[in-house]
Amino acid sequence: MAKSVLSEIQELRSSLQEHNYRYHVLDNPTISDAQYDKLFRKLQGLEAKHPEHFDPSSPTQKVGGPPLPSFKKFQHRVPMQSLQNVYNAEEMTAFFDRWQKVVSSFSVMGEPKFDGLAIELIFEKGVFATAATRGDGETGEDVTANVKTIRSVPLKLRPPYPDLLEVRGEVILLKEEFNRINEERAKLGETLFANPRNAAAGTIRQLDPKIAESRRLELFCHGLASSDGTGIQSQRDLFEQFRAWGLKTNPLLRELKSLEEIASFYEEVERKRDALPFEIDGIVLKVNAFRDQRELGFVARSPRWAVAYKFKALEENTRLLNVTFQVGRTGTITPVAELERVEIGGVEVKRAGLHNEDQIRLLDLRIGDVVVVKRAGDVIPDVVSVIVEKRTGKEKPIRFPKTCPACDSPITRMEGEAANRCSNSVCPARLAESLRHFASKRAMNIEGLGDRWVEALMNKGLVRHFSDIYSLTLDDIRTLERQGERSSEKLLSAIEKSKHTTLDRFIYALGIRLVGERTAELLATHFGTIERLLDSSEEELTNVEEVGPTVAESIRNFLSEKHNQREIELLLKKGVKLAKIETHTAGTQFMGLTFVITGTLPALSRTEAEALVRAHGGKVSSSVSKNTSYLVVGADAGSKLDKARELGVKELSEEELMKLTR
Ligand code: IVH
User: Do residues 447 and 485 share a domain?
Assistant: First the structure.
């Protein structure tokens, strides 16, 4: 008998729910995004044809509905409290001493303190019903329509669950997504968000849910309004239960049993802070046993059983001394803030990025202003705002130059773009930047060919094009001032070594506008050889995954220019070898999986191992993250192995990898 439509719909729904759970909670997807989309569209199609089988908790309902006229108020059944903060070991010890007097056997759960926005999620009979902001703790706003679009919030819990569940969590924006949104806003000349928290808050408070849908928010669960009826006895069990229900929890949870362990967890998390994909501003410690929590109770609006142990701020005030202008490799003129030295979170800062002319105008920035500077990760810090109250009247306006600071050619601004560019395609500053990019680690990886060499080689007229690098001789390099024999030899051997590379690195190294590492990889997999890429039409380029008309046009323009064609030809003639990227022909068993390769493998070279993974449908990434499916480990593996073990990423030897491909 043919399967009924309803049972087909139900099977698709539960299969999509399962894949969501594997992706968001277990971090271990078993199908590729494309396969997921296919199932999703199939379900959408069936549901559209059969409206009688509509279900508001179907995975297809995780999309932004129509705009709302306003937000409804929402009264929290149990008020949402806040945490008391401590800022140093002494204050932490005081808390610890108080806890020790009450608890039977000491145990706290340590977790990161997310820099986001507190949210309550309500599930009725296992179905997502309402989400509300904290507001003043008693009354918040009903933001159900926006929270519904968050991919890591399930519309249905995995059973068993109580009739009513009120979950507390934090909505955040990943740093990467925050940067993407700001880059887009910078391009459109819109005001930038000062930080991911503001961006998350601004998104949750948009009346149009389509906006929330387009910005990938995340939600980490960290508490319950009440554990009544759940049978859960401790913070530790709660986190386990969250995962069992299919709710996302943070990856940095640790049970701690002494003040020493608390101190070392604090240090460990602070050390990892920059490398985390989201912003945190401290750790939160919660007495583990709910019985002890009840005993400790509350004071004013905070629990006595929890505390936020905050990190040093990553924002400081300082004075803007001057604004200088840098020329990038595509000719973009970027304003840079020269600041009075200031220490931010243990790092000395004297320069910060200002993005573009519009940003200076939007901040209403003037030389002499006291500004708020924020450091995030290892990227250049940002000027986020001006403290207008500190103005004396002596501040001076900032003039954006009309001509390039390096070559004096006119600066132009294309319509619809926020960037100002030097109009001279052979501007020396652009060339220097292009060379630096070409040689950089993730491009041709010519070790040691940094600022100092680029400048010296350009000044002597030894390098004008990428390909000139491969004609350099030891004598050439020796003629440069202050370059020792040993470092000259080292550079030459690094240049030689860089000749063996892969097509994706090579494409990335060319510095085509709008072609970053990811696009380069997709182009390489699609075309397989540089010749095929050179022959491609604009239309064919748009067929490449994630390549839109603007990017295709930029690639085509680059490849059509005679001097670029000649340059590519020369590079190949001078011995640059591009390992062939196999397109997905050998197998599909690695579809949806991401591999990282580390250390020296016994038989395969790095390039060969990468090609093997790709040939079987897998992705290769250069850094370990929670999205890594396997780490392939060779001899002398370093920090990647440590990180993988920390995240619990599965390890494979070369032999095991090969076995899997058979
Ligand atoms: S537990 C009684 N855990 O910090 C309050 N809160 O200052 C229990 N926050 O409103 C909160 N990360 O928005 C808890 N791991 C975490 C947190 C966290 C961030 C926020 C939360 C709360 C604020 C309190």
Answer: yes
Say what the pLDDT of residue 1 is.
Answer: 47
| Closest to 325 measured CA to CA, from 309, 310, 336 | 336
In DSSP terms, 307 is beta-bridged to 285
Q: Give, using CA atoms, the residue closest to atom 12 of ligand 1.
A: 113
Indicate the number of domains in the chain: 6
Ligand 1, atom 3, lies closest to the CA of 222
Q: How far apart are CA 662 and CA 658, in angstroms?
A: 7
**Taking CB atoms and a 6 Å cutoff, what residues make up the pocket around ligand 1?**
81-83, 111, 113-114, 118, 134, 170, 222-223, 284, 303, 306, 308
Radius of gyration (Cα) for the chain, nearest Å?
28
- The answer on 342 and 474 residing in a single domain is no
Residue 658, judged by CB atoms within 10 A of its CB (0-12, 13-18, 19+), counts as middle
What pLDDT was estimated at residue 2?
56
Question: Are 135 and 108 contained in the same domain?
Answer: yes
Residues 79, 223 within the same domain: yes
- 17 contact partners, CB below 8 Å, separation of at least 6: 59, 154, 156, 246
Contacts of the segment 38-46: beta carbons below 8 A, 24+ positions apart: 39/12, 39/15, 40/16, 42/12, 43/9, 43/12, 43/13, 43/16, 46/5, 46/8, 46/9, 46/12
Q: How far apart are CA 654 and CA 660, in angstroms?
A: 10
Cα separation, 207 vs 71, whole angstroms:
7
What CATH number has the domain bearing residue 615? 3.40.50.10190
Mean pLDDT of 567-575: 95
* Residue 637: inside a domain: yes
Percentage of residues in the chain having pLDDT higher than 90 = 60
Task: List the single range of 64-68, 261-265, 393-397 with lowest mean pLDDT.
Answer: 64-68
Mutate to test the pocket of ligand 1, among 78, 82, 83 (most ligand atoms within 8 A of CB): 83
Model confidence at 482, pLDDT cuts 50, 70, 90, reads: low
Quickly tell me which residue has 């929670």 as its tokens: 626
Catalytically active residues are 113
In sequence order, the β-bridge partners of residue 269 are none
Tell me whether residue 332 is in a domain: yes
What is the amino acid identity at position 403? T
Q: Are both 236 and 252 inside the same structural domain?
A: yes
Regarding whether 175 and 118 lie in a shared domain, the answer is: yes
Q: Which residues contact 374 (CB under 8 A, 6 or more apart)?
A: 194, 195, 314, 315, 344, 381, 382, 384
Identify the domain containing residue 372 by its residue range.
315-405
Phi-psi map region of 336: left, alpha, beta (phi>0 left; psi -120 to 50 alpha):
beta
Together in a domain, 289 and 155? yes
